[in-house]
TrEMBL record:
One Pfam family cited in the UniProt record for this chain: S4
Record family assignment: Belongs to the HSP15 family.
InterPro entries named in the record: HSP15, S4_RNA-bd, S4_RNA-bd_sf
Keywords of this entry: DNA-binding, RNA-binding
Basic and acidic residues bias (residue ranges): 88-106
Residue ranges constituting the RNA-binding S4 domain according to the UniProt record: 1-62
Region span, Disordered: 88-120
Protein name: RNA-binding protein
Record SMART domains: S4
SUPFAM superfamilies xref list: Alpha-L RNA-binding motif
Molecular function, one GO term: DNA binding
């Protein structure tokens, strides 16, 4: 089974083209090596997947040609313990970070634009 198809079926990416772009961009590695989208995935392959800020380290447990519901998709892989801990830690860190757009309320006023002009 093709790697991009498996990533789509396992619900790591919303579309196959997004999965292909991630693979071509080096955001997906199989057994520590950069691969192409057409690479055949086998059971017990170890994948490292980066999707934005989120990173997974998983082992392929099953193959599926169809994209099913999320509970079925989770049966296709097993996430490593280190990966789970890292994702939970990252989730906690994001929770306590301030939202960068929290102080912005719509378009800048005339006064705001003048102040920005003075700064530059």
């Amino acid at each position: 089974m093709r790697l991009d198809k498996w990533l789509w079926a396992a619900r790591f990416f919303k579309t196959r083209s997004l999965a292909t772009d991630a693979i071509n961009g080096g955001k997906v590695q199989v057994d520590g090596n950069r691969v192409k989208a057409a690479r055949e995935v086998k059971v017990d392959d170890k994948l490292e997947i980066s999707n934005g800020e989120v990173r997974w380290a998983v082992t392929v447990k099953a193959l599926s040609e169809k994209r099913g519901p999320a509970p079925e998709a989770r049966l296709l892989y097993e996430e490593t313990a280190d990966s789970i801990v890292a994702r939970e830690t990252q989730k906690e860190m994001r929770k306590y970070q301030a939202d960068p757009a929290a102080d912005l309320h719509g378009r800048p006023t005339k006064r705001d634009r003048r102040q920005m002009g003075r700064l530059s």
